[in-house]
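[Q] Does anyone have a clean structure-token version of this?
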Amino acid sequence: MPREAIKKLYYSIGEVSEATDLKQYVLRYWESEFPQLSPAKNRAGNRTYREKDIELVNFIKTLLYEKKYTIEGARQKLKELQDHGLALSIVSLEDPKPTPPVDEVEVPQRVASPRPASASQEAMSPENYKKFLINLKSELKQLIELID
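[A] Here you go.
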């Protein structure tokens, strides 16, 4: 069975280094520069990366190497995405597409939520609500993949 086909819960820094084509010292440096990147450590003190951590590493790599962000710019972009509750994906790096005026968007009056709505969710604009739902859908798909 090819190595890429095997899904694991945790990956070592060496495996992540190999998968992302980055040196281990770069990954350790990024941990000090990006607070969002903080893989757990096992009892022996070794870093244990999860799929979510690897996605974040790939996202940071895209910001820095392909989109030519500075470290400070990439840090701000990650914070901005985190503040808006958006998924870390290449889609969010694309130039924003014009959204239709609010009059043309049909917004449901009440949406059933598995958790109580906070004040920030109640005041969410239609486009942010749509982004929130897209993010939720993406995360649910990832969970289903992990289960399978």
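[Q] Thanks! Anything notable?
[A] The mean pLDDT is 77.
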